[in-house]
Write a structure and sequence with these properties.
The chain is an alpha+beta fold. 38% of the residues lie in helices and 30% in strands. It has a single domain, classed as Lambda Exonuclease, Chain A. Strands 1-2-3-4-5 form a 5-stranded mixed sheet, sandwiched between helices. Strand 2 and strand 3 form a beta hairpin. Helix 1 crosses helix 2.
Length: 130
């Protein structure tokens, strides 16, 4: 689904608000799956189309299908959401989401960490080289 940049950023803001409310309620210390279920549930309650454990096709640079990747949440068919429940986000978490976005040809991604006392959210955008 093609959404404008403005629509995607509005969607990201709603996910941020939802994630913050969930983190405020649950705090840190739960398994990643608990937060995944919570974000999924709360987004659906506010009528945002979200798919949980969504299979995405992984492509090589020439378009050859290499396999599948299961993303935590795929929102409005345009935003890949990777959730973590770790003490602190690390470089490998960033590399992971950027790799998923590139290989699955998804332009927008969110990396959300519920495992720290303070919620961490990072937004990523891949632009197609001209």
């Amino acid at each position: 689904m093609n959404k404008t940049e403005q629509e995607v950023f509005a969607l990201v803001n709603r996910i941020r608000e939802t994630s913050f409310a969930l983190h405020s309620y649950l705090r840190h210390g739960h398994l990643e799956k608990v937060y995944e279920n919570g974000v999924f549930h709360r987004l659906r309650k506010i009528d945002i189309h979200v798919e949980q454990q969504f299979p995405m096709t992984v492509f090589d640079v020439d378009g050859t299908v290499l396999g599948d990747y299961i993303c935590d949440l795929f929102v409005e068919k345009c935003l890949l959401v990777e959730l973590k429940a770790v003490r602190k986000l690390a470089d490998e978490h960033t590399a992971q989401i950027l790799g998923y976005m590139r290989a699955c040809r998804i332009e927008h991604g969110l990396l959300i960490n519920f495992g720290a006392p303070k919620l961490e959210i990072k937004k990523y955008i891949l632009s197609t080289p001209v």
